[in-house]
Amino acid sequence: MYMTEHCTFTLKETELKSCHVILRQDLFIDRTVCFPALKGRVYLGVILTPTPKMYSHGSESLIKQAREIQDSELQKFYSRLLKLLKAKEFGHETMDSLQRLHLILSANKYTKTLPAELQRKLSPLLSSPSEQLQVLSTAVLRETLPLPGEEQIYNQENIHSYSLLLSQCSSRTELSSLCTRLLRSLENRQSENQSSSLTHILPILNTILTHSPERLTEDQVTLLSKKLVDWLRYASITQGGAVSSGGFFTGPRSRQPVPIAELDGTVSGDFFTVLCVGQGFTEDQWMNVYSFSMLRHWLLTFHSVPSSVSLSDTDDRSEVDGSVVSMVSATSSSSRLLPPKERLREKAFQYCLRLIEQCDRKAQKKSDTELQKACLVEAVCILDCVCTEDSSLVYRTFPCVKALFGRLSSDLTFARVLLPIAQFYLNHGEIAAVDCDSVWQLVFSQFPAELFNDPFLAYELLRFLRLNVENLQLRVPQYTHSFPNLLKFLAWDGPAVVDDFVDLLPSLVTVDTAVELLHALLDLPCLSATLILQLRTTSTPIAEACGRGLLSLDAFRSPSFRGLFLYLLRTETGSGDTIDRLSTLHELLTEASDWPRVVQCAQTVPVLLHIFFNTVVKVGDVKLLAHLMLVMLERSSLLLKLPTYTTEIHRVFSCHLLRLCKLHPSLVVDQSHDLLEFAGTTANAYSKEEVYTHVVWALGDNLSVSCDSRCSVKLITSCFETLEAVLFEVTSSAPLPGAARPAPRVITSLMSALAKLASRSHDLIPRVSLFLSKLRTVARGGPVPWCSSGEDLSAIVTRGEELWSLLKTPGVAQSVLSPAAHTTTPRWHQDTNLSLPLQLRTLTSLTHTR
């Protein structure tokens, strides 16, 4: 199954392999193409060239050879190919040589010029009877520079000539000229034997429309809008080939036109659409399919182009034109008097309603069922476009869309069809005053909970959220409360969707959800393992399990632990910020630490945590930030044991904890009890070095009257004694054999914090000085058991001597260790009383002078 912005389609493996070789340029219409399959059925689908994650070894070798080919060898190859092209018939050797030439040209960075004679031999191949030769010659010529003065020599009216002309347009004038040429072909009513060239015009126009829509003038837009109306509404309703009626008197005169059929085999009673089938198709039926495939793109691009109300479609045929008009498509004759733009909108509206009616029919083939789903997606998207342009159509459209939702909502196999319906409700639900709760219940509750392992739905749902994030925040309260469910996509396939969540996560952070969201992000690896176990219970093969018996699977099935897993699998917020038995859950999931899916999920968490904290400081108040600080301290010891995961999370916590304290210094006083409790636990200095160091640094920096007037001498003394006890314990006791030693950074941070606190309460200076002098004496006696490196010990002693020297003069110590804010954040470049601004301006002018 492949997807685009326009529709979806399923390709068989054999079809996929053929698509991988060459993308059919003549079928390409904005990545939405129409092509005939077996027995003359028309399919609306997608042809893609799959992009592998990496080239195979053989492919890399071929590309390398093509890039390193020597000029002498290349000239010999040109000569050999020229001889092959002079032959009357072209065999496999010619095809292989052309493919090799294309590889050589495309593998190099710079565009090359072919020998003039060889290039002139390639040009006639554009009109060759062999389509393979047409495609190969086009591909080769596109990679080369045209000969001087021969930029516009390709006069054959086929897709390859037009696409080549388009690729060689080097100016807006040339592009406008090509547009005029293409539209002139549409404007002139052509004879039957020339009409086939029309099928090649729309793909090229659509490419121009994608990259340079301003090249089309208002008159050209009007002309093409008229043509689209004709092709969409007035295509033939009989099959393309005349079919014999049978019997004894069989001859040319007895052949009768056969009407087109519906997907369920019945005779069609209305106008032709892409869902009509037959043994053959006429040219205008093909143009009908091409027109539908580019219709939404056309409407989105030119819906704001004004149409002259004085223009009337005098050349239009009758509204009925021989077809049996159904209740869906019947309109008043006044629609013929509308300007072209409005008339196209009306016909697009009728066409889509007809498609929705056709999708109610039971298809005879499974592939046709997939086709119906693709057409439903496109039809609803087009209806959304026309209703956006003309709000009066909302009231005519909603009954049909609402009925479609009611029919499909109970079948999750139509999930990708229901997303465009959700988009329609989001855009027009308020105008129609309809209840949308059932739609959002489906999108935010059922889809992520039951289809989290569907990569295509994940892509389309997250894309829907990204495109509508502002509207969802304002108008859909279920959105922000559904993040436990949405995170299942991230937990299941983190690397594939992490970019989407980088965009979406800020919109999920609110004052009400921030704490629970932080817990949910930290528990993402647990959620990933739980989703694997959930699928394992339904006998779905899971690669991570490797066929072994899983203790965690038994725990998942056990009623005793069921509540832990059900909390992780919750669909919305409101069940509490976290659970009490997190350590128990982590023990149950110990064996998941080496599951690839869990490891990949864990790698995305630090990135998302940075985004979370960057957002929460903007939306949260001091009370919320204080709560988050406590969560960081608590969760620093409650993380799933994964390789490097704990270290990465501690690094994120330490960074943002210090940032919170700098933004709101009062937080240190508010949470002094919890911070001192954390800093006073000696074990934290060993197991949580990163977080512990930054907590100690925050205490030393921010416990000051200048940061918060509530900071008393008693509080400073209490903090000093707590840190002093820890420092004395780690530097006076020898660790057990094999046990970790305290990091030098922890010791220096404790020493600096004690010196800073003592500089604010001079009564504490003698205690600090005594410790520092003892440290110096101990270091002179040789190696110490708490420091394994002589270099580290020397650095610690040096820091101690510096602090000791400062504390000998308390006044200087206070100004150095606790400087005023205006000295730590100088604004010399803005102070007009200094000469520095003049110097900066002079240097700037010199660097900008050429």
From TrEMBL:
Domain AP-5 complex subunit zeta-1 N-terminal TPR: 54-330
Record-annotated AP-5 complex subunit zeta-1 ARM repeats domain positions: 371-488
A single GO cellular-component term on record: AP-5 adaptor complex
InterPro entries: AP5Z1, AP5Z1_ARM, TPR_AP5Z1_C, TPR_AP5Z1_N
Family matches, as Pfam families: SPG48, TPR_AP5Z1, TPR_AP5Z1_C
Domain AP-5 complex subunit zeta-1 C-terminal TPR per the UniProt entry, residue ranges: 500-846
PANTHER family tied to this protein: AP-5 COMPLEX SUBUNIT ZETA-1
Protein name per Swiss-Prot or TrEMBL: Adaptor related protein complex 5 subunit zeta 1
Source organism of the structure: Cynoglossus semilaevis
